[in-house]
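Hi support team,

I submitted a single chain yesterday and got back a structure, but I'm not sure I'm reading the token output correctly. Could someone confirm the output below corresponds to the sequence I sent? I've pasted both exactly as they appear in my results page.

Thanks,
R.
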Amino acid sequence: MIRCVIADDHSLVRQALLEVLARDGGIHFVGAFEDAGQAAACAVRERADILILDVAMPGYSPFDASRLAKKSVPSLKVVFLSGYSDDIYIRRAIEAGAHAYVLKSSERQELRIAIEKAHRGEKHIPMADRFFNRPIEESGADYHLTVREREVLKLLAQGKTVKDVAIILGLSGKTVESHKTNLMRKLDLHNKAELVQYAVAHKIIFVNVP
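Hi R., thanks for writing in. Yes, this is the structure output for that exact sequence:
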């Protein structure tokens, strides 16, 4: 029996996953939470096998939660759930010790397969090859920017709000605002439209043309 803890801030999503994964047997949930920090604490306390975390939740950063939990229980495997296939999410998940990264749009069995593979110590990150072949640090952003400023630039250009960026990167809103101010000053940008134009021109983001 694989003992799991899950964290997702949407109660309907949590409940649906609990029901679907428990239905076929072999997986037992010892905790379900809306906060990554609480889930990590439970995983450590219960010596769970798998910690399942949504990548974008308010409150405690899921990436920090993964690091802290794995530091306390090195055998713990972390599976990230995400509605995003962006490189930046994948990179942060990998850096946080992910054994698996599963899109919420995947088929139902995809998460079960990821959990079972992670439990065996195998990786399940289908997008990893694409990510490593095109690292974010080489995305074309101005060399005067720090890595963090490039991350903030890309997310803002994709239409994310400061609050969204703070959650994704595990930063405070004030810190994100500071990075935004610095990068716009360095690049001599004055508004959101110019920021997006810069990101497109430097191939930081790509726009699909019909």
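A quick pointer for reading it: The chain is about 50% helix and 15% strand. Let us know if anything else looks off.

Best,
Support desk
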